[in-house]
Specification:
Radius of gyration: 21 Å
Shape: globular
Structural class: alpha/beta
Distance between the termini: 15 Å
Strand content: 5-15%
Number of strands: 16
Order of helices and strands: EHEHEHHEHHEHEHEEHHHEEEEHEHEEEH
Helix content: 25-40%
Length: 481
């Protein structure tokens, strides 16, 4: 039986406001946490400053200036054939400090234009409410999500934009890669636990108590927003979003197998168990006890979580790693976390292991656990691109990566997984979240923007642009050859 993607499958691409919008101080927008991150590299972590230094480069300030190129970019997405465009709204563009009583109308008007443009091109928006971003004021005043005050402030923001756009946006995600909040890097980007911190991102130190308390507040906020959306418009669909860090036991040593089971629970299942099933999982309490976590809860918190069960599960998938207990295990780079090297896999220029079969495995594992519709909302590879003299970019490596993962999704669908969509990460080049680089390019569309801040921001099509166009036109068939 030939693999067939379902009719109406949602092909598209994914971006984040903080990495590509630019216009960081335009039309009333306030500084977000990302605006305080300088650029880094594969070898050098990003630096965080409490004050914006006009003599230093903050790559998120400009991004790729989608703010002034939105119509052009959405037209290019439509040319590729996008059915869905995953994007995020900048919280600080709507509420500059996060504490205003009324929203910034100029910020709201920008997204009016974006959603109207999507509608004109027949593209459905999939909107993330908080994608590694919050007003920096909330970091300095409250230490981000460690404080309960953010629940109500986020609820005010989320309900504001849902009220404004619910007639044009049917699908929403509350928090991007929420499970990265269990790590120090997530504390920088997701939960904002960096009040008063200056220095390299690699130097951030947080306790399990801080991480899991912040996550609890996000769960409550997410639950309240999901319930509000369902009550506002029964046609709205609400999803979670996890960074799926697939790992395998490094060896068949039972100690390695158990260590990997514990890591999968901590990294991949803890947050989605809460958001999909509406309750903390059975293994949480022992983990809390052994790591000194005592969650402060208020009456009604667990009810809010229970009422906020999502309608569909979305996740990012880039790579896999191994987990083991043996001291001689070789380590490798990864998405948000370091992991053990797998000798059976090749790696990208940035050391991320390429594992298409792992995507099929992940899809099967997730669907077996939850039995709700799934979407892969981030998948891609960062690579160096060479611009030829005639301006062309022959990125066969990106096409190969894309087709191998499309085949893996096709196999998962044939396995019986209810997979409803796929959005490639960074269909247009944008600023890397982890390193702040532009040379770490993901896009099918090249943007003339460089690590030193120079460039015209001109857009051009890579070979992969046309390869993805064919995949969408054939509903996946051309990706299976």
């Amino acid at each position: 039986m030939a693999v067939v993607f379902p009719e109406g499958f949602l092909w598209g691409g994914a971006t984040a406001a903080n990495q590509f919008e630019g216009a960081w101080d335009v039309d009333g927008r306030g500084p977000s946490v990302d605006d305080h991150f300088m650029g880094g590299s594969f070898e050098r972590p990003r630096e965080i400053t409490r004050d914006i230094d006009p003599n230093k480069l903050y790559p998120n300030h400009d991004g790729i200036d989608f703010y002034h190129h939105s119509e052009e970019d959405i037209a290019l997405f439509a040319e590729m054939g996008f059915k869905v465009f995953r994007m995020s709204i900048s919280w600080s563009r709507i509420f500059p400090t996060g504490e205003e009583e009324t929203p910034n109308e100029r910020g709201l008007a920008f997204y009016d234009r974006v959603f109207d443009c999507c509608r004109e091109h027949g593209i459905e928006p999939l909107v993330t409410l908080s994608h590694y971003e919050m007003p920096y004021h909330l970091v300095e005043k409250y230490n981000g999500w460690e404080s309960r005050e953010l629940i109500e402030l986020f609820y005010r923001y989320a309900t504001c934009v849902i009220d404004r756009y619910h007639d044009r946006v049917r699908m929403w995600l509350t928090f991007n890669e929420i499970n990265t909040g269990t790590s120090a890097l997530g504390a920088m980007m997701s939960t904002g636990l960096i009040r008063g911190y200056e220095g390299p991102s690699s130097g951030i130190e947080v306790t399990p108590q801080q991480c899991y308390q912040a996550l609890h507040h996000q769960f409550v906020a997410s639950g309240r927003v999901v319930r509000y959306a369902h009550e506002t418009n029964t046609e709205l669909k609400m999803g979670n979003m996890d960074c799926f860090i697939l790992s395998y036991a490094a060896t068949c040593d039972p100690a390695d197998v158990w260590a990997n089971e514990c890591e999968m629970n901590r990294m991949n299942w803890y947050c989605s168990d809460v958001q999909v099933r509406g309750a903390y999982p059975f293994y949480a309490r022992r983990y809390w006890r052994e790591h000194g976590v005592e969650l402060a809860m208020e009456p009604g918190d667990l009810d809010d979580i229970a009422a906020g069960k999502v309608d569909f599960y979305t996740f990012s998938y880039y790579m896999s790693s191994t987990v083991g207990t043996h001291a001689d295990m070789e380590m490798t780079q990864g998405n948000m976390v370091f992991g053990g090297k797998n000798p059976y896999l090749e790696s990208t220029d940035w050391g991320w292991q390429i594992d298409p079969t792992g995507l099929r495995y992940a899809l099967n594992q997730i669907y077996a656990r939850y039995q709700i519709p799934l979407m892969v909302v981030e998948n891609g590879m960062g690579a160096y691109d060479k611009v030829e003299e005639d301006g062309s970019i022959h990125d066969a490596y990106r096409i190969d990566y894309l087709k191998r993962h499309v085949r893996a999704m096709g196999e998962a669908i044939d396995d019986g997984v209810d997979l409803i969509g796929y959005t490639w990460w960074g269909p247009i080049d944008l600023v890397s979240a982890g390193t702040g680089e532009m040379r770490k390019r993901y896009g099918f569309i090249y943007v003339d923007k460089h690590d030193d801040g120079t460039g015209t921001c001109a857009r051009s099509r890579k070979d992969s642009f046309f390869a993805y166009q064919k995949i969408i036109q054939s509903n996946g068939a051309s990706g299976l050859d």
